[in-house]
Amino acid sequence: MDFSAPKFSGLAVYTPGEQPKDKRYLKLNTNESPFPLSPHAQEALKRDDLADLRLYSDPESTELTAALAAHYGLCSDQVLVTNGSDEALAFAFLIFCQNKVRYPAISYGFYRSFASLARIEACEVELKEDFSIDPADYFDSDCPVVIANPNAPTGLALPRCAIEEILRRNPGQIVVIDEAYVDFGAESAVPLIARYPNLVVVGTFSKSRSLAGGRIGFALSSKDNIDALKRIKYSFNPYNVNRMSAIVAKAAVEDDAYFRACCAAVAATRERTKTALIERGFGVTDSKANFLFAAHPAIDGETLYLELKKRGVLVRFLKGERLRPYVRVSVGSDADMERFLAEVDAITASCPCLSSQNHV
């Protein structure tokens, strides 16, 4: 018998990327960092910290909040630390969206889930033919706007001036910019916070700071907007960030040189892999994220995903008519991407219609 509340029976649940338990696969499907946690962060945990796990964590994540504020040139009361950026986004949907929300129809799949959970209308805006976002589609909106920049799964990014124009044209609406992938080559909207009280920027430690398993995210905005987000947090889970993750994340923020080196390495590997795929006949978007969005005219995305999986390589295939030709490939180490390309060559070599395009 189902005892769940009927109002939640139709929730648009999010489907995470595959997380194999046997670790046999090369995982290029969930945009995790190929690099280990910062050495400074690895050294941050001490035996006393483990002993203190018997105590509740600091509900304000005071030291991590201060470190993020210093890093971004903000005050501590303009920062909220959350359990992954998903929590920050969920809080924003709940507190700022009264009846509906506007976001791209092809974007982070969790937006639909958050709208469903908040029981608000999802106004999904189609992308342009080239998968880019048209800023004008978000001018003079009658509801809050949420944009991932760079967008997922395309990796395409809007310049800061386009984000500013969206903010300027929506003085009465909150605009949430989800910057999960911004560190790999896009322009952050954080410098606009001082001029636009309707801006909320959401970030994560999962990608560029190698802490996907630590579940650390954050929101940056005006004090008033952060206070509003805190009303949801303190109605849901005051102790939302565990002690160990907060300590490690603070150290990761402070190790700026390592962070920048890792981001630069990922971006360089991304560009080399993009070039190699184009040479093999693939169409690839101009990604500014830590993944590539690629399609071959002679093999559909699901087939390529399944063939790669047979060979021990996981990429992401996302359902949808426009997405069907594509796979999203996380950028791993140079060795990871060499193996990925070798497996692509093996697949295309076994397909007669592609044999003339092989690069072995």
Automatic annotation (TrEMBL):
GO biological process: L-histidine biosynthetic process
Record keyword NADP present: no
Modified residues (N6-(pyridoxal phosphate)lysine): K207
Keyword Amino-acid biosynthesis among record annotations: yes
InterPro entries: Aminotrans_II_pyridoxalP_BS (IPR001917), Aminotransferase_I/II_large (IPR004839), HisP_aminotrans (IPR005861), HistidinolP_aminotransfase (IPR050106), PyrdxlP-dep_Trfase (IPR015424), PyrdxlP-dep_Trfase_major (IPR015421), PyrdxlP-dep_Trfase_small (IPR015422)
Gene name, Swiss-Prot/TrEMBL: hisC
Keywords in alphabetical order: Amino-acid biosynthesis, Aminotransferase, Histidine biosynthesis, Pyridoxal phosphate, Transferase
Molecular function in Gene Ontology: histidinol-phosphate transaminase activity; pyridoxal phosphate binding
Catalytic activity of the protein: L-histidinol phosphate + 2-oxoglutarate = 3-(imidazol-4-yl)-2-oxopropyl phosphate + L-glutamate
EC number: 2.6.1.9
Gene3D superfamilies: Aspartate Aminotransferase, domain 1, Type I PLP-dependent aspartate aminotransferase-like (Major domain)
Name of protein: Histidinol-phosphate aminotransferase
Pfam families per the UniProt record, alphabetical: Aminotran_1_2
Subunit structure: Homodimer.
Residue span, Aminotransferase class I/classII large domain: 25-342
Family: Belongs to the class-II pyridoxal-phosphate-dependent aminotransferase family. Histidinol-phosphate aminotransferase subfamily.
Cofactor dependence: pyridoxal 5'-phosphate
